[in-house]
Amino acid sequence: MKLRSSRIALYLGVAATCAVLLFPIYWLLVTAISPPADLRSLPPRFWPDVPQWQVFSRIAEERPMLLWLTNSTLAALGSVALSMTVSVFAGYALSRFRVRGGQSLGLFILTAKMLPATLLVIPLFGIFRSVGLIGSLWSVVLAHATLIVPFTTWMLKGYFDTIPRELEQAAMVDGCSPLGALFRVILPVATPGLAATALYGFVLSWSDYAYARTFLTNAQQSWTANLGITTMKGEYVTDWNEISAAAVFVALPILVIYLFLERYLVGGLTAGAEK
Amino acid sequence: MAGIRIENVRKSYGAVTVLRDFNLDIADGEFVVFVGPSGCGKSTMLKILAGLEEASGGRVLIGERDVTDLAPGDRDIAMVFQNYALYPHLTVARNMGFGLKMRGMDRGEIDRRVSEAAKILAVDHLLDRRPKELSGGQRQRVALGRAIVREPQAFLMDEPLSNLDAKLRVHMRAEISALHKRLGVTTIYVTHDQIEAMTMADRIVIMRDGEIQQIADPDTMFARPENLFVAGFIGSPGMNFLLGNVTADERGARVSLFGQDVCLPVPLAAVPGIAGRPVILGLRPEHIGPAHGPVSFAVRPRLVESLGSEKYIYVDLPHENRGAPADAKGADDERRGDALIARLVDAGAVATGEPITLSFDPARLHVFDAETHRAIR
Lengths: 275, 377
Ligand SMILES: Nc1ncnc2c1ncn2[C@@H]1O[C@H](COP(=O)(O)OP(=O)(O)OP(=O)(O)O)[C@@H](O)[C@H]1O
Ligand SMILES: [Mg+2]
Known about the structure:
The structure holds 2 protein chains of 2 kinds. Chain A has helices at 2-33, 54-62, 65-96, 102-112, 117-130, 137-161, 166-173, 178-189, 191-206, 210-216, 225-231, 240-266. By secondary structure, chain A is mainly alpha-helical. Chain A folds into 2 domains: 1-52, no CATH class; 62-274, Orthogonal Bundle (MetI-like fold), CATH 1.10.3720.10. The model of chain A is unreliable at 268-275 (pLDDT under 50). In chain B, the strands form 6 sheets. A 6-stranded mixed β-sheet of chain B has the order 6-7-8-3-9-10, with helices on both faces. Chain B has a 4-stranded antiparallel β-sheet with strand order 2-1-4-5, with helices on one face. Chain B has a 4-stranded antiparallel β-sheet with strand order 11-15-22-23. Classes of the chains: A mainly alpha, B alpha+beta. The A-B interface holds A 164, 166-167, 169-177, 180, 185, 188-189, 191, 269-275 and B 47, 50-52, 71-73, 77-79, 81-89, 98-99, 102-103, 130-134, 136, 139, 146, 150, 163. Adenosine-5'-triphosphate (ATP) binds at residues 13, 16, 18, 38-44, 192 of chain B.
């Protein structure tokens, strides 16, 4: 009996958390498909009488949604690929090797992620202009990598720390080189950690606005989705239906990726390595 | 298969010295056990042998080959880890075949060796499972299997049984011994369990604080410990230690134990100047008998523990015999400096507080220098 009531309390807690987290997304959808008149009504209407689903096809036709999403995707994939390549090695080294100053080096990387993005925008702009990257997607790929690498390095270090050293020792006794042990044993075992970390990096890049706005404003063909959406806000009139619908388009890929990667994110693959 | 030679191996981490001047010759096919308390450097020595740690000095030879600077994979040894270290993403068959695959062996030969080893270890029905789907004992077998398919020069095992429950441990202990008899591969086995060491080893190496205390076969280790530490480490319950002051006369060296004048089993000539010095006398619990003997004394037990087949009798030591140093403690019992334990088999009725006569033969006494703790013979 006691067990049941504590279970019920648990479920209520989960439900409340979900409601708080999901309400903005739900409201985004409602805003997209409500007739404009409904948007200001008081009390608010939680579901329109006549949902305006056509708003989605309208913006897909009138706005370069596909281009923007493609650019966002390319920027995110590029920066994640770059960041993961760097931070797999960096995180592994921080986790495994005791080198002089290694710890302070790790902390230094950590402080890099505490700097607000806006602080780095100006020096990066200077660098990119001098090498002619302004307006190119490569600028955001590189800039996002500077954001992502500190996070992913520390996440991966933490994940590698949970993998017993004896695994690569066994691999080395079995004939692997240290790099071989990393690629044949540690990385396969770390797949859930790698997936979660990569996804985190993807979201960081996907949600950026400041860098895209600074480096890409004058190059419409390189606009990312977040940058594109803000241009939909008119000076006098703003079509909230369209902006919300575009935002739904931007949110969708992340949801899809989450669903796709879920089984990796749950992890539990290391179970059985020990004892 | 090959012998192993360890020459002057040292290891320090910064200012901390973990191994000092380790020398050992292991014959081809021998089963050597490193035993000692936690932190004495057993695993470190094993890792140096495997090439997983670099020695600060010294050489390691496997066969006639100097492997000191070779990578672990080039040393032709196999290792079994305490936590098994099975590859969690691979099936049992692939776990066992991994080392062979890394050496470029062809598929058919790998399969043949894996299934043969799996049969020996009775895990042939588990080949398609992953490590997390196995019990502790099964994981242990797979870890052993991964070592034996390699047919290496030597096996290195680091406390392979310590994660198993007591019963399984005894079973696997026998199985590893049988495996060693069957394969005849040189094996170095690390444990801190002296019973494992005694039952499995051809030779035992007792270590403490990075130093070898004694190298001997189990019987010698038990009968002729070279110092106080070894004496206290081997045996369960551990050896009793009594303090005594030596007096010497024309009949030999004597000391007073339980108020009686006891003649020590060492010739006076062995230690000139021993007279007047304190010594520590070691007496094994099983060398104390009920009823009268060469040296008898009447006591009232402080505690009697019955294990059914045998009884442990705890007796207060006389004050003059108390005070043997704390580091002479046994490996697995909380020894108090003020009690003596007798281990009696078929002793009849003995009760706490009831008078009983115990006895021992002075020839059974081990004599140690109270300062150096070395055996006096
Ligand atoms: N990387 C390291 N840095 C500093 N000291 C270390 C390191 N690795 C081991 N040590 C020290 O070396 C000593 C020996 O360690 P080792 O693991 O060989 O002990 P052990 O005999 O195997 O003990 P146990 O029975 O607990 O496994 C310990 O005191 C340990 O603290
Ligand atoms: Mg150890």
